Each structure stands twice: as structure tokens, then as C-alpha cells.
Amino acid sequence: MKNITIYSLHPNVHDVKSLLICYRLEKIADSFHFIWEEEDPDYLIISEHIYTDAELKKRLHRLWSKRRILIFYSQEAMKPDLNLFDYGVVFDTGLHCDDRIVRLPPPQDMYHNFYLPERKAPLGIADAKAILAGKPEFCNFMYSHASAKRDEIYHAVGTYKKVDSLGKYLNNSGHIATGFEGHYQETTLLRLPYKFTIAAENARYNGYTSEKLLTALQANTVPIYWGNPLIFQDYNEKAFINANEYECLEDLIQRIKQIDESDELWCDMVCQPWQTKEQISADEKRKEDYLDFFIKLFHTEISQAKRVETGLHISFYSKWFENAKPKLLYKRIIRKIIMSMRKTT
To answer: Which pTM was predicted?
Structure first.
């Protein structure tokens, strides 16, 4: 069994056990002997948190000169910088670079602790009608921070009927849910009285689908989904309202109103399977490809697995990255986002 010395820069990963869980590598745990190595790992998995967490950035600086195989693993809507990192694990559906890129596992694997692991069979109409009878509330919204588009949707839907905000942000319900990992009580059970859920990502980004659609579906609500413009490739559009397809919010509100006023339409949507057979099959292939990527990488000798090129300007770029201050980088990113928002308004 091959020894794999490994370390991860992620706030919730502190040892081999948490690494295998976080990165969904439990199925290959018996094929390799994973060793947690903080000082000189052969494999360093780097999360997107290095851009906002000063402590993680310091650790990266400490390890930078000792780097072997660098794997950028983003669980947010971000692309890897292949001038710096050998490999990238991403949400992107169309990002390819030889053997250096692999897509993340499906959301039901990535966010397994947000909802019940077993895939439930589609409901029958009688079940849906009984569920609807126990839903006295209209729509919920559960978030901890602002995000331009989902704020727009929240306020727009609120012009039709009151939307209950259950999270820290825009809270108007009296109960403040944290919505953090493992909080099935909050992400699903609190939504049970509602007919609709605003299930909006923090970014519009190809392939980026988090737990938000899944927890809304699990609560037997009709999700009002915004985010991944390719969501229809992974999930059954008949089971949710795809807000990405509406150019103006007025049209979106009309569709919500139509479903809200028709028990038949609402029940039909809740009875739909979350995924088609083809989508389920594609997810199985996606999981296999993900594990095969790591199996191949770990079996390859370190000297043969390096992918970052060497050269003068790559060296300049690497030194800039190593010396850049995290807070300054974060401020620059926020400034660019604000300026971009101003230009579009």
C-alpha cells in the first residue's frame, strides 16, 4: 500500500479523517496509506479559503518553498490558477486542461450532511395534496449574507406576498437560523410549512450548484432557483422554477403566482423526480471520474505528476502570489465586485 503524505489548507480539515470526509475520498481510503504531514507533504490540497483567511495564507507561505503537488480544491464558484497549482477540482462543466482538471462530485455527495442521504422516491398526487394541506405559509428565504441577485428576487417576490426570512440576513421571522453544515433541523425542517423556497446561489456560474436546491426539494417546497445557468443538465426542471430563464422579475413573479394559485400545478411539481434517469446515470459517472482522478494522481510518481511549468515570468508570478497580503487581496476583490455592480446598475 502506497504512503500518501498529505496536508490541507481548509478551516474544517485537521487530520486524515476530516480530509477524507471533506473531499469525499472515503472510498479509496483502503487503497492508500494516508499520512497527515504538516511540514513537508507530497500533496497539498488548497481551498478557496486561502484568499480570505489570513492564517491559512500564512501556512501556505510557510509551505510554498517545499511544495510538491499543489491541488486547488474549490467548493465555491472559482477557477484554479494553473500558473500556481498543478491540479484543479472545480464546479465548471466545460473547463479542461489535459489531466489537470476534474469536476467535483455531485451536490448530493458534496453536501451530504445537509440532508438525508437516501434518495426518496417521487411522491404520488395524494401524498402531495396531503403535504400541501400542512403548508400554511407562502415562501421562505434563508441566508446569512447579502448577494445581489438573490436579494433582488427576495424583494421582488415580496411584492406579491410576504416572504419569511429565516436566516441572519434580512431576518423578519423572529427565528434566526445559522444554516450551517449538518443543520438538517434548519435547512429542511424549518421550511416544511412553506410552499416555496428562494433557493439562490451566491453566484451565477456554469456548473456551480450547492446544497440550496436539494434542501428546498427535500422540504417538499417548490424551489425558486437561481445560480447555475446549466442546472437543467443536472436536475429535473419540472421540479423547480428556473429563475435563470426569466429576463425580467415581473415574468418570474407571474409564474410563481400561477403555481401558487393552482393546487394542481404545485402538486405536479412536488411529485416530479428530482433527477431523470439520464441525470442519475451522469452523476454516477461523475463520481467515478472524480475518484479515478485521485487514484491515478496518487499512483503517479511525484516527479511525473508535477504540472506547473517553470520559467522566468512564472517565477515572477509565483513570488507575487507568495508575497501578496491576504487582506489586501480580499479588499481588491471586493472593490472589483462593487465597481462591477455599479456599472451594471
So the answer is: 0.86
